[in-house]
């Protein structure tokens, strides 16, 4: 009998496999018993002739394909991605349903992009549980002023990333809710919607019963952060509604002063201080809290140029004195 091939599962967690690099590759390597080959198995049929000599009649080669979760750099380059949002379609076939398609989006950002993270339930919506069901029956359950604030942040050069511990089966409804939300004619800015790859019941158990959605969020944000240079933290600020959101944001290097926790009254708490701020009042201060990225880069280069000028003048005077 051919040697049995078993593939060690990637595991539901660390729950977030989509940005795995070397770790996912190791997790998906086949483990083969009785052979040294990692992707083939050899079965030989032999027979003894009248003289007792053993000869091999045929050799069967069975190849095992290995599924990977992360595309290579060459595969990504062949997609000819443009900066910003790119729409892609996965096509596959099933025995029961036939040919199927799944739409997705790939976001291409620069290495120095500044990302503002936002939770969904209780942060964009007014509450955790009702925020998932009220939009399904046509009731507006969104926080007042959130669309205007997030749009102003995007206009100042930041990218919005929507992070939720909702299950993967809620992906379509979550994305539809976010990008059809309008307040006084203002819509939420476009951005990636990152949610849990778990099913509905495991996600609800983790978030509602165990109250530990930060386990998923921390690991997910760390994987996204690993896509950027090691000396560059892409996360600039974070919005949430729970202490677990603050724990997640602190873990990936967001300072306390840039973590905004909204309580059930609609008040925004910064560093555990309630100043009766709302999304609307923060919107009035958005240019101070979220300065335009081009202006901050210009200020940096002006300071750098001024420092170089001072050093050059000092070197010139030292040369004259000599």
From TrEMBL:
Transmembrane helix among keywords: yes
Q: Which domain of life is it from?
A: Eukaryota
Which SUPFAM superfamilies would you find in this protein's record?
HAD-like
TM segments?
299-316
Say if the entry is tagged with keyword Membrane. Answer: yes
Which PANTHER family has this protein been placed in?
A: LIPIN (PTHR12181), PHOSPHATIDATE PHOSPHATASE (PTHR12181:SF12)
Q: Which Pfam families match?
A: LNS2
Q: Which InterPro entries match?
A: HAD-like_sf, LIPIN, LNS2, LNS2/PITP
What keywords appear on the UniProt entry?
Membrane, Transmembrane, Transmembrane helix
Name all LNS2/PITP domain ranges.
Answer: 115-271
For this entry, the protein name equals LNS2/PITP domain-containing protein
């Amino acid at each position: 009998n051919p040697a049995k091939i078993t593939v060690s599962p990637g595991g539901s967690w660390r729950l977030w496999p989509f940005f795995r690099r070397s770790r996912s590759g190791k997790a998906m390597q086949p483990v083969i018993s009785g052979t040294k080959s990692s992707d083939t198995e050899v079965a030989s049929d032999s027979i003894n002739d009248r003289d007792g000599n053993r000869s091999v009649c045929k050799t069967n080669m069975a190849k095992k394909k290995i599924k990977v979760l992360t595309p290579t750099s060459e595969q990504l380059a062949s997609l000819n991605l443009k900066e910003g949002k790119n729409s892609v379609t996965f096509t596959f076939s099933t025995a029961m349903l036939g040919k199927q398609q799944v739409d997705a989006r790939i976001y291409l950002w620069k290495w120095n992009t500044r990302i503002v993270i936002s939770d969904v339930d209780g942060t964009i919506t007014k509450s955790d549980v009702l925020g998932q069901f009220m939009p399904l029956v046509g009731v507006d359950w969104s926080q007042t002023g959130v669309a205007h604030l997030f749009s102003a942040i995007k206009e100042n050069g930041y990218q919005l990333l929507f992070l939720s511990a909702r299950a993967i089966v809620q992906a379509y409804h979550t994305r539809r809710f976010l990008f059809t939300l309008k307040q006084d004619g203002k819509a939420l800015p476009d951005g990636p919607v990152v949610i849990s790859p778990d099913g509905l019941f495991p996600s609800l158990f983790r978030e509602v019963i165990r109250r530990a959605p930060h386990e998923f969020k921390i690991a997910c944000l760390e994987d996204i952060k690993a896509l950027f240079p090691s000396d560059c933290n892409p996360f600039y600020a974070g919005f949430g509604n729970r202490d677990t959101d603050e724990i997640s944001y602190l873990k990936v290097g967001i300072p306390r002063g840039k973590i905004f926790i909204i309580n059930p009254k609609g008040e925004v708490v910064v560093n555990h201080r309630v100043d009766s701020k709302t999304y609307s009042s923060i919107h009035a201060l958005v240019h101070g809290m979220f300065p335009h990225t081009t202006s901050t880069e210009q200020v940096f280069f002006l300071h750098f140029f001024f420092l170089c000028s001072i050093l050059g003048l000092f070197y010139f005077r030292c040369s004259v004195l000599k």
